[in-house]
Amino acid sequence: MHLAEHWAEEAFRISSDKMAQLMGEVEALLKAERSQGGYREEMKITGGLVVLPRKGKIVVVGDLHGDLESLIHILRKSRFLERTAAGEDVKLIFLGDYGDRGPYSPEVYSLVLRLKRDHPERVILLRGNHEAPPDLLGMPHDLPSDFQRKFGSAGRDLYLSLVRLFQGLHQAVLVEGAYLLLHGGAPSQASTLKDLAYAHQTHPSTSHLEEILWSDPEDDIAGVYPSPRGAGRLFGEDVTARVLALAGAKVLIRGHQPCPEGVMASHRGKVLTLFSRKGPPYFNPQGAFLVLNPAQESLDARQLADSALKF
After folding, report:
1. Is 54 exposed, middle or buried (0-12, 13-18, 19+ CB in 10 A)?
2. Does CATH place domain 3-310 in 3.30.750.24?
3. Distance between CA atoms of residues 293 and 249, nearest Å
4. Shortest CA distance to 170 belongs to which of 54, 62, 277, 31?
5. Would the pTM count as exceeding 0.70?
6. Integer Cα distance of 302 and 31 in angstroms
7. Residue 100's pLDDT band (boundaries 50, 70, 90)?
8. Burial of 182 (0-12, 13-18, 19+ CB in 10 A)
């Protein structure tokens, strides 16, 4: 049995007490790494912005929405656990939306949180719109019933603990000089990197966090337009170019939108959308994940889409 499959079996068997302990440990870990400013040369953290040097390998995972099978596949194919155990310099970045709208949301959260607890300097958890503050939360929101189904009477308290943990998730990763990663879209009113780093603190007086979690790129517009989602914005290539310039990056890597092939390039190669679950309720026939080599020359979104590992 592959190590990832063994971890998945343990996620199915986890008790309410062990789940509570795991969430408490990761919540404390997230607070500590933010207050300490990261992990020396591995990553620097300012507010909710993680800055990575251009070295090693980076595995990037998009939306999972309770799709445990896809998560196991990604861990098996990327060999993240084995490569980490061997001392290789490899990091694992999740773009958010771990649960909701999938049958195994508690199990996905359990496995993802265990990855973070056991490899804190190697695993980065970003916040998606399904981990948003209550006024920005994606609907329908199935997690309360999912946790009650799995944990019975303890489900409500575990869900509330998970919501508290969401507040510690970061909102963006910058791979220096190369890639900016977040869940939804470029914050159109941002003027400095601090606007990304402290979007969780300036919400709701600014739109930065809402756009980071909810916005979508649109090829045929300039500026921003109202989003049919009811939150966030549709943003044009000019917005992408401006935010990439202030970040010193070349490509925005984001999740949030289902893609038939698991990946989609837009804004003339400046934006890559990555979706890592498949099947209902989104019915995309393929999911995908990325393995980045940041030490090499940066790829544009079209090249990244070609190099994505589809399944």
Report:
1. middle
2. no
3. 15
4. 31
5. yes
6. 36
7. very high
8. buried
